[in-house]
Amino acid sequence: MADGDTLALPNSGNAANRGGRFGWALTLVLLTLLAVGLGGGVGALMVSEFERAVLAKHRAETEASNVSASPYSGAISLRSVAPVVTNLANSETDWIRLESSIVFKSGTDINPDIMVAETRQDLLAFLRTVSLAQIQGPSGLLHLREDLNERVRLRSKGSIQELIVESLVVQ
């Protein structure tokens, strides 16, 4: 044998090579199983937290809807306003009749009869400026109701809470 020659054992390189490959495969399988387990655990934790948050929100909404504050609490009164009949703007043949009531704070210094009379007069003046096209359809009726409520609140300086439209006839 020469100085540079080494003695090789039969199949010694193949066994080490096979053991290294098996070790790597085993490591990859274990890491994959660990990743799947951790991912599933974190996902389950997140889902349970989400479910708890949704249930808490639902409970809070349910409790809030059961204990809703009425806008008509306190010292309030209801008075009927005499029917308002007038013709519409720019027309002598189109007429409107409005029957309504007002909800107002009863603890104010204002005489309720005077407040009702002023409200009726203001409704009459406003309805004379409304055209038929403005009150047609559901959105027109909604806008008329909002305009009337806003006008009545401004006129009474906040003592009237709402104008309730009982009937509205346009002929």
Automatic annotation (TrEMBL):
Keywords: Cell inner membrane, Cell membrane, Cell projection, Chemotaxis, Cilium, Flagellar rotation, Flagellum, Membrane, Transmembrane, Transmembrane helix. The chain crosses the membrane at residues 22-47. It is found in: Cell inner membrane; Cell membrane. It is a single-pass membrane protein. InterPro entries: FliL. One of its GO terms (biological process) is bacterial-type flagellum-dependent cell motility. It comes from the Bacteria. One of its GO terms (cellular component) is bacterial-type flagellum basal body. The keyword Transmembrane helix applies. The keyword Cell membrane applies. Belongs to the FliL family. Controls the rotational direction of flagella during chemotaxis. This is Flagellar protein FliL.
